[in-house]
TrEMBL record:
This is Amidase domain-containing protein. It comes from Erythranthe guttata (Yellow monkey flower). Residues 1-25 form the signal peptide. Residues 57-452 form the Amidase domain. The keyword Signal applies.
């Protein structure tokens, strides 16, 4: 079910205002399904018409969190200053013309708990008790931009601990601080990770907007499994400064929302140069189009787009209902002007999808140790100052951290590395060659605007090359678990990907609110 139009939403708010003398406005808002699925534009229209305040909206989300988070565990922590920030936003609305305020002004936003904030929150812990009490030197680069855009930091989302880079056995969506995140559609289903809480919270309407991070699949996968939209930007398009790192070659920060338009509004707010991530964002900033990204929200965005299909392994099905739905989607894409280039092959795809064979695993292990040690040393205060100290902490508090059950094999393997030596250089060269002779060659030779995949299966292809991707709700399988469709492109191709994703979303309108089936 899509968010209702602005006019129907305003009718709802008019009813709320009339009901205020005899009823709690927040209770009424909470019971109204349309506010739960409202878009950023719906909310801004209500703000402009003085039919909703940022405080009421924030209270609404806090109420939903109180009701749902004990079950879903999508959040680790709520910002104790959230209502103060909402009141501040409301005061600004009274003194400035609405047209002069940024699109995200007064909108609460949730941050994955590896994105640093210099405020009353417990900074950023990656879901681990090892970093509780640490103090960051400043807001993360993307948080600075969000605050400048007037957004309200609502709290920290749960995640797969250490962004799924600690052990081999921990389930997706689990962290020591946050517990086990649950898929709001089918509670027993995998919520995927590592940006699990960001996707869970948006899907279940505990917030409209969140940020996630991706090294390999950590935005595309949870968004696909939770029927929300996720944008994995070109590496360097968004700043990684102040974000607990894994790899400077592959890490990126992107929006998770319920609609493509909302995700694009957030993307516009967080892209750009950051002196604290100068090397990455200097290159990434060159891809930002004049006038921003919202200009590419075109209903006819599929017209003339060349979309590639690699049947094996990105369009294979074991679920008949899923296969039927995606066959219908292919027809819809054609009807809306897309040119489907079918039965393509990516050279050495088996190696690309195998982190050990491609060399990705070797490079990430070495890069993680270097990057994390640098991050920890720059903290104003921290219980741990190196990966070795994190490992020791986990061993000492194994009962709390569940190390005995979930392990820290990745940590141990990373600690055993000694920088970027011959083995790592060879692995990086392998990754680059596979990318150049695989995905890049396919895209260029076939003049493709995007490559498609069922779910997030294309994620490793995009990850090792630093390429962008967008996932959009596309289907529900025979077990009623959501499945997205992903579109990936070459570096800087966000404008085309947005046109494609928005065109597909508007032509299909698949998303519906969660069912909370046990």
């Amino acid at each position: 079910m899509q968010a209702k139009s602005s006019s129907s939403l305003l009718t709802l708010f008019a009813f709320i205002l009339l009901a205020w003398p005899n009823s709690s406005p927040i209770k009424i808002i909470c019971e109204a399904i349309s506010i739960k699925e409202a878009t950023i534009q719906d909310l801004q229209t209500a703000f402009e018409q003085n039919q909703l305040t940022s405080r009421q909206l924030t209270e609404f989300y806090l109420n939903e969190i109180q009701k749902l988070n004990p079950l879903l565990k999508g959040l680790i922590e709520v910002n104790p200053d959230a209502l103060y920030l909402a009141d501040k936003a409301d005061q600004e609305k009274k003194t400035k013309p609405h047209s002069s305020l940024p699109t995200l002004h007064g909108i609460p936003i949730l941050l994955k708990d590896n994105i640093g904030t210099k405020d009353s929150l417990n900074t950023t812990t990656a879901g681990s008790f090892a970093l509780v009490g640490s103090v960051v030197p400043r807001d993360a680069g993307v948080v600075m931009k969000l605050r400048k855009a007037g957004a309200i930091v609502l709290g920290k989302a749960s995640l797969s601990e250490w962004a799924n880079f600690r052990g081999l056995n921990a389930p997706d969506g689990w962290s020591a601080r946050g517990g086990q995140g649950k898929n709001p559609y089918i509670l027993s289903a995998n919520p995927c990770g590592s940006s699990s809480g960001s996707a869970i919270s948006v899907a279940s309407n505990m917030v409209a907007v969140s940020l996630g991070t991706e090294t390999d699949g950590s935005i595309l996968c949870p968004c696909s499994f939770n029927a929300v939209v996720g944008i994995k930007p070109t590496v360097g398009l968004t700043s990684r400064a102040g974000v607990i790192p894994i790899s400077p070659r592959q890490d990126t920060i992107g929006p998770i929302c319920r609609t493509v338009s909302d995700a694009v509004h957030v993307l516009d707010a967080i892209v750009g140069f950051d002196s604290n991530d100068a090397q990455g964002t200097r290159i990434g900033s060159q891809y930002i189009p004049y006038g921003g990204y919202t200009q590419f929200l075109k209903v006819d965005g599929l017209e003339g787009k060349r979309l590639g299909i690699v049947r094996d392994p990105f369009f294979t099905f074991s679920d008949k209902l899923l296969e039927q739905t995606f066959q219908q989607h292919l027809q819809t894409l054609r009807q809306n002007g897309a040119i489907l280039v079918d039965n393509l092959e990516i050279a050495n795809i088996d190696a690309i999808l195998n982190a050990t064979l491609s060399g990705e695993a070797i490079t990430l292990l070495a890069e993680f140790k270097i990057s994390l040690n640098t991050y920890l040393k720059e903290l104003v205060a921290s219980p741990v100052r190196s990966l070795a100290e994190v490992i020791a902490f986990n061993q000492e508090f194994s009962d709390v951290e569940m190390i005995k059950e979930f392990g820290q094999e990745i940590f141990l393997a990373s600690e055993a590395t000694n920088g970027i030596e011959d083995l790592e250089k060879k692995a990086i060269s392998s990754v680059e060659n596979l990318t150049r002779n695989g995905f890049e060659k396919l895209m260029i030779e076939n003049k493709l605007d995007a490559l498609m995949s069922v779910g997030p299966s294309i994620a490793p292809v995009l990850a090792i090359g630093g390429f962008p991707g967008i996932t959009v709700p596309a289907a529900y399988n025979s077990k009623k678990i959501p499945v997205g469709i992903s579109f990936g492109g070459l570096k800087g191709s966000e404008p085309k990907l947005i046109e494609i994703a928005y065109g597909f979303e508007q032509a299909t309108k698949i998303r519906k609110p969660p069912t909370f089936i046990p």
